[in-house]
Amino acid sequence: MQHACTSPGSRCAPLVLSLVREPRLRSWSHIDERCAGFFALGMAKATGIPVAVTCTSGTAAANLAPAVIEASHARAPLIVLTADRPPELRDVGAGQTIDQLKLYGDAVKWFSEVDLPDAAAERLRFMRTLACRAYLTALEGPSGPVHLNFPLRDPLVLDRELPDDSTGRANGHPFVMREPPADPPPARGPGPRPSGRLLFVAGAGTPQPADLASYAAEHAIPLLADPLAGARRGGAAVAHYDLLLRDPDFLARHRPDFVFRLGDLPTSKPLRAWLASLADVPQVASDPYGTWHDPDAVVGLRLRGRLPQPDELEVEPGWLDSWRAADATAAAMIDAQLGDELSEPLIARRLVDWLPQDARLFVASSMPIRDVESFLPAREDGPRVLANRGANGIDGTVSAAFGVAATGGGPVALLIGDVALAHDIGGLLAARRHELALTIVLLNNNGGGIFHFLPVAGEADAFEEHVATPHDLDFGQAAALYGCAYDRPTEPEGLRGAIERSLNGGTTIIEVRTDREQNLALHRRVAKAVAGAVSA
Ligand SMILES: Cc1ncc(C[n+]2csc(CCOP(=O)(O)OP(=O)(O)O)c2C)c(N)n1
Ligand SMILES: [Mg+2]
């Protein structure tokens, strides 16, 4: 373990002090437990290594729930350490006491009510074993959150010396070590022989995405990869499937014979609807964790994360060329339609060009993640894309992005809408308290632009106030309150310059104002132009 997040309180002092005084851990202090949870989540997603998060008793523990739920859906390893009152102080009117047993329900892989600890040798062995078990459980299988609840009695600080503890292993080794999980067997076995028009669909959690991209290119199999898969690259990548698959003509001419799905399902609605309509086409899902992403019940074979063996494949000649030609046409139409005016799709398309190779891009739910999926071109390398797409929440996004920044490595950019930023505005506190740098590109359309794409937009009496929720916030003031720099470019070159300046250090909010209605119209124009050009 490398990182822990703390939040203040009296009951949690023994946990906080233990974490903070452990020299092998870096502890990050947070005021708001919801922010602490998402910050820890961002670190866990970026590193894949379990991160501890601790808090005091009562509603503090409930505030960790959103991050725990996202960690569960996104397979991120979190170790949640909640402080609690001891049994004699539960349900008797003692302050700040709620029922914390199994507080997060099935969202955690494991819950343990920790015994009131004393320092006898056998209790210390139990405690060390418990710690190793929590770590390994969070990490292994599919990764995910675990919850340890600690009843703690006053005085909550040491009132005498700790006895000598000689239970540790030599050389600081873990108390319990476990053999790493074995590789899955080769992906042969039952099911149809893949041949003809093969297709790869890859989402978050795709194992070895670079290998997949080269494999797809080598065997001429179109690869439809969500940017979260890390596989939108190489000679087989089809970047603009979200737009291509809106055209019935294109669908009719590109019916596959065999679909091979890796990782989670991508977000794209047209892609999901299309896969659902291919109920009679053999579909294989390959996922090392056995995650069940099949809302339309069309998958007929599940593999454990491997690709088909090369000698099994027979791919129809010209099949990939047809996809790639359509993708190139789509790209040209997108660029022609977007022109050089600052718009939400243009930023989703070009933001990565303005970031260094080693940057990481965190993308908020709502239109940012959808636009990145639709418009981000295929590229050989470039920023890793991260998001909270396990449970698709707009909450905790700022904190999660700061958590990614806290793990070191290259710079981190966050592409976020105004409602999502307002939701986690307190997350900005991490910039100053932890001196973290984050380039926040804020798409401010004063409300939830996504809802204009949905039928609810027609419910005129309630739509604007209760669904779109305009707030008229002045984010420059938020930047000032939290000690962030602030910029408001109005054209692409200005945005590029602002990003470049921001990358020199510190946290900057770079606000781009857009209009929800115009954004809807622009998306429709692009989709229509792409469909027209591809049909032609
Ligand atoms: C925690 C949570 N609450 C509510 C929602 C529903 N929701 C989805 S998108 C959205 C609006 C987001 O607006 P904004 O961040 O400005 O992005 P835009 O739609 O404008 O791109 C809301 C409220 C959600 N996904 N998560
Ligand atoms: Mg918005």
Task: Throw out a few tags for this protein.
536 residues; alpha/beta; 6-stranded parallel β-sheet; 19 strands; binds thiamine diphosphate; binds magnesium ion
Describe the structure.
The protein is of the alpha/beta class and 536 residues long. It contains 19 helices and 19 strands. It has helices at residues 13-20, 33-47, 59-62, 65-74, 121-139, 209-218, 241-244, 248-253, 269-277, 319-338, 344-350, 367-375, 397-406, 418-423, 429-433, 463-468, 475-481, 492-502, 516-535, and strands at residues 3-6, 26-29, 51-55, 78-84, 110-113, 145-151, 195-196, 198-202, 223-225, 258-262, 283-286, 301-303, 314-315, 360-363, 384-387, 412-417, 439-444, 485-487, 508-513. The protein has a six-stranded parallel β-sheet, sandwiched between helices. The longest helix is centred in the middle third of the chain and has 20 residues, at 319-338. The model has no long low-confidence stretch (mean pLDDT 94).
Task: Put the structure in a nutshell.
With 536 residues, the protein is α/β, with parallel strands linked by helices. It has 19 helices and 19 strands. Helix 9 links the parallel strand 10 and strand 11 (283-286).
Terminal-residue CA separation: 56 Å
Order of adjacent strands in the largest pleated sheet? 2-1-3-4-6-5
Give the overall average pLDDT: 94
Structural class estimated from helices and strands: alpha/beta
Can you count the helices? 19
